[in-house]
Design a protein that fits this description.
Chain lengths: 48, 240, 230
């Protein structure tokens, strides 16, 4: 059997990193929007 | 021509009602972890291709999701052109972004698999080349959206570009396929081996199922972001 | 031909003539595109190692890459010319079917692109010493087919990107993937024809080009009204 375990590891690591990275990016962006809305609610007086 | 009611004062986007944990995402995450665990520790490697063959359990499902994302994004845009429901445009946007992420996954896992199996990182095989074009289509779509601030115009242009992009895929596939048959490039071995033993087939289809769930979960999350963003934008403009 | 169809084509022709008349008065865009094409062909020559790659292998690539990029240069003008003085709104208010506005622009763009190619093809043949001979007519045919495909998608996208923030960058980014199924058949058939292969051998490529033209000419014409406000 050819010795190519390293490629197998690299591919899985890359995929997992990509998926987790994207999930985190969505969470971060949602938090940012929620923060901005909270800022507006307290500063401007108008409800969201 | 009577002005369309959606043109003047858009109905305020109800902020996403979903608070707390998205159970679809939790289930998707659990199933995905299970699929990865099975693929990594409970499936034997192929004798001929070695451990690198296991990359297929990730590579092929990402291709499936990438093209599913394109199809649904284009379809959603088409429905928007006739129904003008903003949720359809938000779905198209979300599916496209999820699509570009998964397409990136294909373009990363593909060469990593190709190097040990075919001897080169990139051999312009028909499937990866088509995926590369898909990647450019998604990127162009997202860049287009980023360049338009007006929501209605953005939705309209995106829908047209999305539909034409989906229409393009079979033409690219055909051109590249005929190009490849006329200019065959050396291939070392039959890459997938349709005769997969049962244990590997189960892993494969389980993985396919997991990735499909992931698509659903990601699109839902991304749509929630889009809804929140639009709601914030509506509230800001309502003040002026 | 049904009356509405005839009406669309006649209006398209009128709009095309108007655009070409405006273009012909200044000719700057057309001349710029020709100069760009010639310069590109020359630059390609200096980037070429003739001992490693034969002219018959390189020339189709040069011809079709310059075709793609010079073709895109001319697409802007079709809608830029209306951007001044709000002429686009006037055009939309006129009693012409929306489709004919698109077809008129398309015809003008087609004339532009074909005009540039009547210079490009002889230039490439000259600089690379190509044995055009009997292949000249079929290659010209390929140029016509490819141009129709290019201007179908290009005209629609140029119209859309004219309304966005990053026009010059956005048009190539959006349009180039669509030119792939045009350039592959075009370049491959040109290479085959220059190598002396009979026309029948390249039918498979010509069929793809023709199918692309028919599908996208129709699709872009139908899509154009959707890009305008209701």
């Amino acid at each position: 059997m050819p010795d190519n375990v390293a490629y197998f590891h690299a591919a899985y690591a890359a995929t997992i990193a990509l998926l987790i990275g994207y999930a985190v990016s969505i969470v971060v962006r949602r938090r940012r929007v929620a923060q901005r809305r909270a800022q507006r609610a307290t500063a401007g007086g108008r409800g969201a | 021509m009577t002005p369309a009611p959606t043109g003047s004062a858009p109905a305020p986007t109800a902020p996403t009602a979903r608070t707390g944990i998205d159970w679809v995402a939790v289930v998707a995450a659990l199933v995905t972890v299970a699929a990865f665990v099975r693929a990594i520790w409970f499936t034997p490697p192929d004798l001929l291709q070695g451990y690198a063959q296991k990359i297929m359990y990730v590579h092929v499902p990402t291709i499936w999701v990438a093209f599913l994302a394109l199809g649904l994004s284009a379809l959603s845009g088409a429905f928007w052109l006739f129904l003008k429901d903003p949720r359809l445009d938000r779905f198209a946007e979300s599916s496209a972004e999820v699509g570009v992420v998964f397409t990136t996954g294909v373009l990363v896992t593909g060469p990593i698999w190709a190097k040990p199996i075919w001897g080169a990182w990139w051999v312009w095989d028909a499937r990866l080349t088509l995926t590369l074009v898909l990647w450019f289509l998604f990127l162009g779509y997202l860049v287009l959206r980023g360049a338009i601030d007006d929501r209605e115009l953005r939705a309209r242009y995106s829908a047209v570009v999305g539909l034409l992009g989906a229409l393009l895929i079979p033409f690219v596939h055909l051109s590249v396929y005929i190009f490849r048959t006329q200019h065959p490039m050396p291939v070392v071995a039959n890459p997938e081996g349709i005769q997969m033993p049962a244990v590997m087939q189960v892993t494969f289809f389980f993985s396919l199922f997991a990735f499909t769930l992931m698509y659903v979960a990601f699109v839902r999350a991304r749509m929630a972001l889009a809804t929140d963003r639009d709601a914030l934008e509506d509230a800001s403009t309502a003040e002026r | 031909m049904t009356d509405p169809t005839r009406g669309i084509l006649v209006s398209a022709w009128v709009i095309a003539r108007k655009d070409l008349a405006i273009e012909f008065r200044t000719r700057s865009a057309f001349l710029s595109a020709i100069v760009f094409t010639l310069l590109s062909i020359v630059v390609f020559f200096f980037a070429w190692d003739p001992t490693a790659v034969g002219p018959l292998d390189l020339a189709p690539g040069v011809l079709w890459v310059t075709f793609t990029f010079s073709g895109m240069l001319g697409l802007h003008r079709a809608f830029a010319v209306e951007a001044r003085d709000g002429a686009m709104d006037a055009l939309l208010l006129a009693p012409v079917p929306r489709e004919s506005i698109f077809l008129g622009k398309l015809l003008a763009n087609l004339a532009f692109v074909l005009g540039v190619q009547t210079v490009a093809l002889p230039a490439v043949s000259l600089f690379y010493n190509l044995p055009l001979g009997a292949a000249a007519l079929p290659i010209a045919g390929v140029l016509v087919l490819a141009s129709i495909g290019l201007v179908s998608v290009g005209t629609l996208f140029a119209g859309m990107t004219a309304n966005t923030r990053m026009t010059e960058l956005l048009l190539p980014v959006l349009a180039l993937p669509f030119f792939i199924p045009v350039v592959i058949p075009a370049a491959q058939s040109t290479a085959d024809l220059l190598a002396g292969r009979p026309l029948a051998d390249v039918f498979v490529w010509l069929r793809i080009l023709l199918a692309f033209d028919l599908v996208f000419l129709f699709a872009c014409t139908v899509a154009f009204p959707f890009t305008l406000e209701d």
